Amino acid sequence: MTGGRGPQTIGAVLRRCWRVRYAVAVGTDEHSAGVWRSLTVQDVARVIAQVKGQHPLPQSALETIATAVSVRRDLPVHFTAQRRQIGDVGVALMSMSGIRVAGLAAQRSNTVHLAFLLEGRVQMTPRESAPLVLEPGACFMITNWSSFDVEAQEGTRALHLLVPEAVLRARGVRVKSTRFRLEGSTTLKGPLLALAMSTVDPEWSPSASAQRATAKALEDLAIAYLAESDDHELDRADLRAQLRRRSVEEISLRHRDAALNPAALARHLGVSLRHLQRAYEGSGTTISDQILRYRTESAVTLLSSPAGRSLTVAEQARIAGFSSAYEVRSAVRSRLGMLPTELRAASQDAISVPESAE
Fold first, then answer.
1. Could you give the dihedral angle defined by the CA atoms of residues 32, 33, 36 and 39, in that order, rounded to the nearest 10 degrees?
2. Which of 99, 80, 84 is nearest to 23 (CA)?
3. Which position among 59, 85, 130, 232 has the lowest Cβ density within 10 Å, counted as fewest Cβ atoms?
4. Domains and CATH numbers, the chain
5. pLDDT tens track for 94-108
6. What is the DSSP string of 270-320?
7. Taking Cα atoms as reference points, which of 306, 332, 302, 296 lies closest to residue 315?
8. Which range is least confidently modeled, 157-161, 233-237, 304-308?
9. Whole-model pTM?
């Protein structure tokens, strides 16, 4: 994936598009016994800083993690990563030697890790369930690192998407803190993984517009992937309401474009037309109704304003998003019970378009 190489300020690069390649040579607590040995607080701090970006954890949290994280005593220890921030979503490609995380004290992050295991095998053991072994190709979602123990005897390589829970909630997604393996339909897994992997490619140097487009596509794909998997919890009524609100916001911005119709709106939102139509079922309105309502409001504003008196009805229709003067006449008459010419004559009165049900 390539992008333009337009000028960017150093601050913009640091804030929006920083990437890291690093290897951490870790120290260990030599008093540890057995196959595993623990890390030092300083090493944990360095690793966490690189994975999470410029959001260091408090000392108490680092100490808690250090007591729970161990590495293989008999194998070389390494940890490398490439990371980039794309809008609200962080992307980190991580490779590490054998590791074990066990007995981590209860803590809840405000970030969801959506991870794809690329190489190696990982055993995840929920505190009250049987162990689950993840093979390459598995996808898992972590919302609470203290709800299970993790062990990888050999090296692993994984791609992590770090998504703020606030972003998921705003899009109607409710995740379970006790479930982590994502299963079900995987039609979006390939596109999501390919796009995310391309963003951590050191050769990718996007322009500002390319990065904004990528950020939207990455977030939309991640949300859609969660929505099509069966290992999450969605408040479906809330999800439909969220999609309706998003569609109305998009209509308010684009209704003056005569090419806007339900199919075009679905494309702008990154969903199928049928999915968008289902969001409106039982709401008392339709996509077409909302588009017509906004266009009618724009037409009424023009017709009743001094600035619009110099324009013909056909010109006002085009500006409001209607394809003809006939359409605007029909819409205004249906909504207000009068023709555009009558509305102009009565423009000194306060006239408003009634809100339709949402």
1. 0
2. 80
3. 130
4. 10-228 (2.60.120.10), 235-358 (1.10.10.60)
5. 998 898 888 776 555
6. TS-HHHHHHHHTTSS--HHHHHHHHHHHHHHHHHTSGGGGGS-HHHHHHHH
7. 302
8. 233-237
9. 0.55
